[in-house]
Fold this protein.
Amino acid sequence: MRAGRAGLLAATAALALAWGTAEAQTRTPRDALVMAWNIDAILTMDPAQIGEVVTDEIVNNTCDPMIFQNVDDPAKLEPGLAERWDISEDGKTYTFHLRRGLKHPSGNPVTAQDAAWSIRRVLYLGFGNAAQYTQWGLSKEKAEEQVRAVDEHTLQVTVPEPWPPSLFLYVFTGRQGFILDRKTIEPHVGTRADGASDYGNGWLKTNTACIGPYRLTRWTASDTVILERNANYWRGEVPLRRVIIRHVAESAAQRLQLERGDIDIARDLNAEDLAAVDANPNLKLNAALRHQLYYIGANMDHPILGNDDVRMAMRYLVDYQGLERTVMRYSGRAWNSFAPQGAFGALPPERGLIYRLDLDKAREYLAKAGHANGFTVKLMHGTAFPAPDIAQHFQANAAKVGIRVEIEQMASGQLFSRMRDRNFELAFLGWSPGYPDADANASRHVFNPDNRAEARQGMFLSWRASFYREWFNDAVQRARLERDPEQRKLMYYEIQERFMREGPFMYNFQQVRQLAMRNEVREFKHHAFKVFYTTARK
Amino acid sequence: MTAEVRTGAPAHGGLRAWLLAETVTSPAQARAQKLYLGWRRFASNPLALIGLGIVVMLILLAIFAPLVATYDPFAQSLERRLLPPSGAHWLGTDELGRDIWSRIAYGARITLMIVLLVALIAAPLGLLIGTVAGYLGGWVDVALMRLVDVFLSFPGLILALAFVAALGSGLENAIIAIALTAWPPIARLARAETLTVRRADYIAAVRLAGASDLRIIVRHIMPICIPSVIIRITLNMAGIILTAAGLGFLGLGAQPPSPEWGAMLSTGRAYMLGSWWLAAMPGIAILVVSLGFNLLGDALRDVLDPRAS
Amino acid sequence: MAAGGTAVASRGGAGAAGRDRADRLRRLGREVFRQASAVGISLFGLLAITFFIGRMLPLDPVIAVIGDDAPQSTYDMVYRELGLDRPLWEQFAIYVGKVLRGDFGVALNTSNRVADDLLRVFPATVELATVSIVIGVGLGIPFGVIAAVHRGRMIDHIVRVVGLIGYSAPNFWLGLMGLVVFYATLGWVGGPGRVSVFYIDMIEPRTGFLLIDSLLENEPDVFWSAVEHIILPASILGYSSTAYIARMTRSFMLEQLSQEYVITARVKGLSRARVVWRHAFPNIMVQLVTVIALAYAFLLEGAVLTETVFAWPGFGRYLTLGLLAGDMNVVLACTLIVGLTFIVLNLISDILYHLLDPRTR
C-alpha cells in the first residue's frame, strides 16, 4: 500500500512535469494540417468499394459529389457538380444539369457521360455501396436505361417508384454520387474473376481521378496519407495547402503529440485522454453527434431471446444515464430508437430515450416470460471501445436478475461473418446509416425482404437477427412512399415506438465524434455525416 | 561447501547431526543428506529465497483469495470508477468501478492455473519428443527435429492464434495453445541432454541386460533430463504469463469479466496517462511473479546442475 | 573461414594443416548441402502448416473486401475471385506455384502486392531490430561478464534483477512511459513515427532504411530526425535483448571461469582483466553468436505492441493486421520470412559453430 502511494506521487510528479512543458508552440508546418489517426482500416481508395469512416472522409475531401450537404446541416442539400435538377410530373425521373466548364485534374472536361459511368460502375461492381442505389429500385441489369446521359451536361435517372425526393436525393451526396474521370481511368480497366470488367476498381484502389478541393498524393498503408490542395479548384482555392494524416494507433501517444504540438488534431482519443484535452487551455474539443448507433442485437431464432418479454427485460439492464455521465461522457448520448437524433423522423428526446436501469422491471418481465429463474446466454463483441465496457456492464446487471451472460470477444472480421451466418445469440455492435432520415435504418433494421435462411439477405440487419413481422414490413414500405413530410414523420414515430418494444435490437448509445485540436486550428467544420478540411485555417 | 555449512545456523540436535554425518548408514539418509545440502546451498542465496518467497506468496494468495479480497472482484459501480489507491481501495478501482486489489487476488488463481497447466502439458510433451529423438537418432531424430524447427520458426502469435481460433476462444483453449507453442525449446533441450548420456556406460549396461528402448528412455534417460527441463520451464513462466496477456489483448485469452492479470493489464493500457494504477498494478503483479519464478529457476539450476557448481 | 583455418593450424601443428583443411572443406560442403535441403523441407512444411491452419481460422477475408453490408451475390463473386471455392489442396498448389515464380499475391489490407509491402515494412523492422541488437550486445555482454566475475556480490544481484525486469516488463508499458518521460517531458527524443512531419515525404525509399537513405540523399536533417525517432523504441527493445544476452553471457562466463586453465593463468600471475577478456571470453564467443542470432531473430519477427505504441510501420503490425483480417497472402508471406530468418540465422550460427569450436569436430 505504501509502495502504491509512492508510485502515485512519482507518477503524478512525472505527469505534472509533462503538462508543464506541453505548452510549447505548434511545431507543424504553417500551411498544413497534421492529424494523427488510426488509418489501419483503409483498404482501397475506390469510392465504389469504400465502406468505413476513415477513407470515406478522405475521398469526400478529394471528390465532389453531384449534390453537397451543407457544411453545418447535413439535411440541407446544395448544388454540387449538378447546378440544378428537375423532377418529372410522375416523380420518377430526375434530370440533373451539370455545371459547365468544369475540368478534372487531368484536364478532361466533367461530362454527363462520366457521371452515368460513375453511377453504373457502382451498380456493376456490387459492393456494399451499390445498396444505396438498389434500395431505390435501380439495378445492375437495367442500369443502361435507368441512368442515361442525355447530352454532355444532362444526366437522367429514372426510378420505378415516386419516392419522396428529399429521401432519394441523398444518394447523390455520398461517395456513390461522385463523378469520376472516366477517360483517365479507362486505360487501367482490368477484368474480374468472372471475366467481367472491373471498371477500374483495381487501379482506383491506390489512385484518385475526380474533381475536388484536394487530391491524394500519397497513401502508405498504416503510415501516412497526404492530400495536396488543387490549385484551380472551381469553388476557389482552400486555405490550407496540405493535409497530412499520420498513422498513430495509440490514444495516449496521440495525446502526447497533441500536447507537444507535433500534430494539430488527434482523432482517436479515449475518454480519459479527451477529459485531459478538455482541461488543457491550449487545446479544445470539437464534437458532432454522428448517426452511428450502438446496440445489443438478439437472434430471434433463439428459443429464449425470441420472446419479446425477455428482450424487454434486457432493455432495463443498462444504466443508460449513468454510463452517459461516466464511461460514455465524451463519446456517446444515450438513445433507444433506431432513428438517431438529428435524423428526419427521429423521436423527440423524451420519447426516444425511455429505458433506464430497473432491476425490478427486468425481473417482472422475466417472470412474465416464464424465465424468473434466469438462463445462460452468449454475448459476442469486438475489442474496440466501447464494446467491452458496455458488454461487461450489461453482464454484471444481468447477473443480478439471474441471467448469466458469457462474453466472447473477437476480431471484427469474425464478428461480422458470424452475424452474416446468423451464428450468434447476443451481439454488441455499431451501425451507421447512410443518410439523415429515419428511413435509412428502418429499411435495414426493421424491414426484412425474405427471412428464409437460404435467402442470405446479410445486408439487412433484420435478416441477420431473423426478425420478420408483416406489420413492420408494410409500415416501412408505406412510410417510404409517403410524400407528405408531416405524415411520414408520424408514421416513423409509430414504427419506432413499436420497434422499441418488439424489435430484436436494444439500442443504447448514439456515437459522438470528438475532434481534439490545438487552439490554433480554426473553422474546422464537421457534422453527423462529413468532416470538411476545406474551411480549416491555422 | 563445507565452510558454508559450518557457518550456518547453530546446531539443532540429532536431526542436523544425522543430516551432516560423515558416515551414511542408509540410502534414505544419503538422499536426505543430498536434499538437505541442496537446501543449504539454496538458502545461502538471498535471491533464491526471495524467489521462493514470491512463489509461495502467489500460491497462498490464490488459495486464500476470498479471505484477502476486500470486495467482490466482479462488483461494478459507475460512481466509484477510476478511483486512485486509497484506504478504501488499496490498489484503486478500474474503469467499471471494480476493486483492483480484489481482482488481483482472484486473478492469482488464474495466473497460477495458467502456468501450472502449461507446465504440465508442455514439459512432458517436450521431454518425450526430445528424448526419443536424441536416443533413437537417425531418421526419427531428423524428422522430429525438423518438426521442432518448424514450430520454433513460426511467428509465436500466429501459432497460438491459430490454435485458439481452431479450438475456440476461452482460457482453457488459450492454455492449450500456449502449451503447444512452449514445448519445442524443451524438446531441444531434452535432446541435447540425451545426446550427452546415451553413449554412457550405464545405458549400455542396461541395454545389454535386455531392456527395451522404451524402458531405457522412460526409466533411465528421462530422469536425467527432468531437472534441466524443470529449470527451463520455471524460467519460461514469465514468458507464459506474458503470452497469455498477449492473447487476452487480442480478445482470445480469458474472457471478461475474468480478472486475468494480462487482460487487466491490456485494458489498463487505455488509461495509462490518467489513471496509471489500472495498468501498473497488474503489471507489477506480473513483474513480481515472473521475477519470482526466474529467481527460483536460477537458484534451482545452481543447486541441481552439477556442472554449474 | 580463413580465421577458423588459422586457428586450427595454430593448434594442430604445421604439417597436418593442409590435409586437415581440405578434409574440413569437404565436410563443410556436405554439411552445407545437407542443411540447405533441410531448409527447403522446413520452409515447405512451414508453408503447408500455416496454409492449412490459416484456412481453419474463422476469419472471413471476403467481408474485409466488400464491407459489412454488401449483398450475397457480391460475396459469392469475391469468394470465387479469391479462389476460396476450390479444394484446399488445389489452393495450396496454386499458391506454392505462384510463390516459386516470385508472386506472393496482393494484400487485401493495403491493395498492394505483398512483395511491395514487405519491401516497405521489413526494412523498417530490420532497421529497428539492428539498432536494438547493437544496444543489446553493447550493454549485455559487458554486464554479463561483470556479473559473472563478481558472482554472488551486490553488482551481480543488481545486474540480474535489472535484467529480469527487462525480461518480464511489458514492452508497451515501458514504451509509453518512455514517451511520457523522454518525449513529452524532457523533449530529448522524437515522438511516434519514423521521422518528423516536416520531412515526411522528402526521402524516396531506395534501401528502405531511412537512416541510410537520408545519408544517400545527403539530407543530414532527415538523418538526425530519424535518429531522434528510432532511439527510444530501439532502446526499449534493446533492453529486453540486453537482459537476455547479459543473462546468457553470465552463465557461459561462469562455466569458463571455473575451468582449470583460468585458475592456472591466475596462478601464473596474469591480471584478472587479462584472464577474463583474453583467455575466457574468446571461448564463449561461439556460444554467444548463437544467442545473439536468436535474439536478433526474435527482434526481426517484429514487436507488435512496441510498433503500435511508436506508430512504427513495421513487420509485426503488418503481420498481425493481416492475420486479424484473415488475409492469408500476407500471413503466408510473413511466415515464410520469419521462418527463413530463423533458419538462416540458425544455419549461420551452426556453421560458425562448426568452424570455430574445436570440440564439435
